[in-house]
Amino acid sequence: MILSALLTSVGINLGLCFLFLVLYSILRKQPGNITVYAPRLVAEGKTQQRGQFNLESLLPTAGWVKKAWQPSEEELLSILGLDAVVFMRIFTFSLRVFTVAGIVGIFILLPVNYLGDQLSHDISDLSSNSLDSFSISNVKDGSNWLWIHFCAAYVFTGVVCYLLYYEYRYISSKRIAYFYSSKPQPHQFTILVRSVPVPSGSTCGETVESFFTENHPVTYLSHSVVHQSSKLQGLIGDAEKLYRRLGNLKLKNHTPQGFKRDGFLGLFGRKVDLLDHYEKKLEDIQDNARLERSSLAGKEIPAAFVSFKSQLGAAVALHIQQGVNPTEWLTEQAPEPQDVHWSFFSASYKKRWISKLVAFIACAALTILFLIPVVIVQGLTNLDQLETWFPFLEGILNLAFVSQVITGYLPSLILQMFLSFVPPIMIMLSSMQGFIAQSQIEKSACIKVLWFTIWNIFFANVLSGSALYQVNVFLEPKKIPSVLAEAVPAQASFFIAYVVTSGWTSLSKDLFRLTPLVCNFFKRVFAGKAGDEFEVPSIPYHSEIPKLLFFGLLGVTYFFLAPLILPFLLVYYCLGYIIYRNQLLNVFASNYETAGKFWPIVHYSTIFSLVLMHIIAIGVFGLKKVPLASSLIVPLPVLTLLFNDYCEKRFLPIFKAYPTECLVKKDREDLNDPATMAEFYEKLVTAYREPTLMSMQYPRSTDGRNIPLLHAAEV
Q: Which residues contact 705 (CB under 8 A, 6 or more apart)?
């Protein structure tokens, strides 16, 4: 790719970013869009529908930037929780890393690369030069200038490791401080027990109570047995949606707008009185729920949430084998009550094992199938190959602007479109694996998306781009450095364009929230539901963290190979820092709190990126005929892995479980307030009772109509 093609891509994406930002600053002020751009604040009652339309609201303003910038980290912690703070720390960590990298790369390495004479380029016609002229490929083989790159690799590795250690230590301390400052939480006093050996003639509840009363007589408090209630959960969910719709209709005093068609968006189906229609549907669901609940008592699963009187008592029961048979009385930490993923509890051990195997096979199949768009994308970056495939396009491809758009903009755009389907698929696959919490599902999906992205976007593009006609990709380990040394620098231009398209434009598009905006418009126009029904989205950790880490991998890998990528990454992280602060404060709500358990993923990904950079450096210095530099790089990955091992032993245990010292101290503090703890114990007894078994009652209509009651007696 030549520089003008990159500039074309940058120009297109800058235009799109500017358009999205301007439209956002206008549309966010419109009265009907408050549930699109501030749903969290509306749900919490912190903002209300704005007044009537006025011309001043059509003027774009940047006041939202100031509001997003102002809150301190402590304020974010009190509003959003530690997970959101850790998510924003990824941005600050990346900005620190690539600020140092940018200073070294732009002011030292980039001039050295461009002044090399390995490749022929015209200094007077900068725009027509290949981007390879700005990479290490332009430094002459055997040149002493390569020792600057060697020193830069050592300095950069030291800086990244220092910043990693600082962040790991800081977030670990914040995790402990967050634990001390929080009120008693049900999941801190509760464990999940699976594979309960229920004898014949007894129930799971009786077995659990007998076992823990006998073996944990001092600390045992209560238990809640899990039932096969997935069908009932669906019925209750449908009933709640219908009840909300009925409430919205009653707020309108049942105007003639209540007579609509019962099909999609009120456009299709027969015309009905919606109030009567919804009441009849609610009655049917009520009858089905009663039938299902009547048979639920005998559908116990050999699993139960067991609660204790102290956090230390729960920790002891969690980490000590409970029964003589290690396959029975299996324990794991209970998630927060609102984080429990009830749907998969009905699965047997055999079904969970099969589901894990199916998820693995499906993930591997998706990885292989994704190579198809990768090959298409690489064909677009190579115009000669594209002309071979489609000879009738030769005349069009010879046009300068068309060739610049095709090689500079289309490849990363197409790849981004295909990649957008990956996170939802990974969530679906992770939900099949038997995790008991939504946070565990998202963490598993986060890891899947990360490695999928690294393999399919980085390695697949690198290998297919450098060896499009080679079939044998699986090489001997000793050849990997030389293969990567040839392949990775050749794809620098593609990844710079990818950062601009998938980074800059994607961020501004996420701020604009095009899909919710369009859905809200159609609801208001066709269904008359302006602000009646809206959903507060959860923070998409499983899709956004892998994206941040992948851009970090690109920056670390290309730091000394093609430092031209660094300014584009800095712009991305600066833009993302402001946009995500705004979205966290106004749009997203947290459905769970892991107290920073996503950070080890960030640490391991950064270590992997450093080691990958070292392996590539070994190959590059070998190809550049500086064998001494290649040999002296070898200690770097070894030292990096030793550093990782130290961090793993020093900090990782804190993210797995709180130490005894902390638990005892917190238990003593809690005992100093017996009234609060007595109230907490009362709530703890029912905290893990399934929502479908809790009392639910919908009140009667205030307009003379009777809304059927969906009442569930506690089991």
A: 275, 279
Tokens of 634: 């070898």
Burial tier of 648 (Cβ tally within 10 Å: 0-12, 13-18, 19+): middle
Predicted confidence (pLDDT) at residue 499 exceeds the cutoff of 50: yes
Per-residue pLDDT at 212 exceeds 50 = yes
Do the beta carbons of residue 383 and residue 397 sit within 8 Å? yes
3 state SS for 21-77:
HHHHHHHCCCHHHHHHHCHHHHHCCCCCCCCCCCHHHHCCCCHHHHHHHCCCHHHHH
Q: What average pLDDT does range 536-564 have in this prediction? A: 93
302 closest CA partner among 227, 353, 399: 227
Nearest to 499 by CA among 456, 421, 552: 552
pLDDT interval class at 701 (50, 70, 90): very low
User: What is the C-alpha to C-alpha distance for residues 37 and 587, in angstroms, rounded to an integer?
Assistant: 6
| HEC-encoded secondary structure of 225-288 | EEECCHHHHHHHHHHHHHHHHHHHHHHCCCCHHHEEECCHHHCCCCEEEHHHHHHHHHHHHHHH
User: What is the distance between the terminal CA atoms of the chain, rounded to a whole angstrom?
Assistant: 67
Assigned token pair, 508: 């501004």
CA distances, 582 to each of 71, 91, 576, 635 (Å): 10, 14, 10, 43
- What tens digit of pLDDT does each residue of 661-674 get? 999 999 999 888 88
DSSP state of 130: B
Q: Give tens-digit pLDDT for 644-697.
A: 999 999 999 999 999 999 999 999 998 888 888 999 999 999 899 876 665 444
Q: How far is CA 458 from the centre of its chain?
A: 19
Q: Which residues contact 231 (CB under 8 A, 6 or more apart)?
A: 292
State how far the alpha carbon of 269 is from the alpha carbons of 64, 155, 244, 526, 674, in Å: 43, 68, 21, 14, 60
- Global confidence as pTM: 0.84
CA pair distance 715, 381, nearest whole angstrom: 63
- What whole-number distance in Å separates Cα of residue 228 and Cα of residue 348? 11
Q: How many residues does the chain have?
A: 715
Mean pLDDT of 445-464: 87
Exposure of 75 by Cβ count < 10 A (0-12 exposed, 13-18 middle, 19+ buried)? exposed
Query: 675: which 2 tokens?
Result: 């009234």
